[in-house]
Amino acid sequence: MEATYRALREHGYADLTMRAIAEEYGKTTAAIHYHYDTKDDLLVEFLAYLLDKFLDHVRDIETDDPERRLGDLLDGLLIDREDDYDLVCALLEMRAQAPYHDAIREQLVRNDEYIRDVLRAVIADGVERGAFRDDVDPDAAASALITIVKGARTRFVVLADSSVLHVARDVAGAYVADVLEA
Amino acid sequence: MEATYRALREHGYADLTMRAIAEEYGKTTAAIHYHYDTKDDLLVEFLAYLLDKFLDHVRDIETDDPERRLGDLLDGLLIDREDDYDLVCALLEMRAQAPYHDAIREQLVRNDEYIRDVLRAVIADGVERGAFRDDVDPDAAASALITIVKGARTRFVVLADSSVLHVARDVAGAYVADVLEA
DNA sequence: CCTACCGATCGGTAGG
DNA sequence: CCTACCGATCGGTAGG
Q1: Distance of CA B154 to CAs A15, B48, B151, B164, Å?
Q2: Residue nearest to nucleotide C10 (CA to C1')
């Protein structure tokens, strides 16, 4: 997985070959085929590896306070990513393959739904506990925040400038303040 | 260009070959090399073709009224795109290549700056004419709206559901109403 | 997990 | 713009 990551970073998805991965791995392509039947199997497994890496910053949020928890989540999804340019690029490459590859698309859909569930839960909790307005639709609000997060990461890939992540954090913050809070 | 578009739609960027393009073109690969020296030259030209197609919905906005003009722009960037799934996918594929391909990245940066300029101009005009609050930073506001637009299009590729475009239109509308307007 | 190799296909070109 | 083809490289495998 690490060798695939390095090979992808260097060559890009379109030029990612078993030989390039094997070279990073320090073994032959036959060694890779011993662990994965096909290149496709390897790439599906690799996406799971990337998504797990990505969720690292989302999982370990401690606070129970809805407002603070939502803020920490947005920080984890945006600000904490500024040193992970390679990871964001790799995930966008996989995302661009979704229309042509069912297994990849399904994994990404599941991952996106997971993140939306996490956001929806904290927003619903905030509504219930009076931190957010009681006419807020947690489902719609979660979709809105996800849209902002994804937009920031897509811009980040092309511009390679972490200021787009901070801009998005501000936009998300404004959305929370103006739409969710009273 | 049209043949390349069809071949990309069918095979994806990673499996886009000169032979597949030639087949869609109805000629041989040698015929393509008569017009473009290398596959790379063709792809750079192809991106320009895609971006031009994309800007179609942005160029022909008539009204001068800042609020209405901004609304029309957001409609053009989001709602008008719901029947252009293939175009949005193709552009995301090109975008994912940016880190590995200077000419592609520069074209995308230029395109993004153009759209930001258009948004910034209408927002600045609105501030000047009193339609928007006078403490609005047109530059920051344009970046915010672009982030929302890009997020919607990235989600659209994986989910293939135009509701994400409408959600984003609502989020952008809320931003305009809550942050730009009084 | 390596050596050695397979058939298939790649981008590109010489000659017309 | 076609025919015919080039060297290079692809994903994958047999045998050990």
Answers
A1: 22, 20, 5, 10
A2: B17
Whether residue B75 is predicted with pLDDT greater than 90 in this model: the reply is: yes
For the entire predicted model, the pTM comes to 0.93
d(CA A122, CA A65): 9
Q: For the segment A125-143, what is each residue's pLDDT rounded down to a tens digit? A: 999 999 999 999 999 999 9
Contacts of B179 in chain A (CB under 8 A): 174, 178
The model's confidence at residue A81, banded by pLDDT at 50, 70 and 90, is confident
Spatial distance between the Cα atoms of A152 and A155, rounded to a whole number of angstroms:
5
- Contact status of A139 with chain B (Cβ, < 8 Å): no
Per-residue pLDDT at A172: 96
d(CA B21, C1' D3) / Å: 19
Query: Which bases on strand C have an atom closer than 7 Å to a protein beta carbon?
Result: 1-4, 9-15
Which distant-in-sequence residues (6+ apart) come within 8 Å of B22 by Cβ?
B3, B28, B29, B31, B32
Please compute the mean of the pLDDT values over residues A98-125 and round it to a whole number: 96
Instruction: Taking each helix axis as running N to C, give the angle between helix B102-128 and helix A138-159, from 0 to 180 degrees, rounded to the nearest 10.
Output: 120
Interface check for B27 against chain A (CB to CB < 8 A): the answer is no
Which 111-130 residues of chain A touch chain B by CB within 8 A?
A: 112
Distance separating alpha carbons of residues B147 and A49, to the nearest angstrom: 27
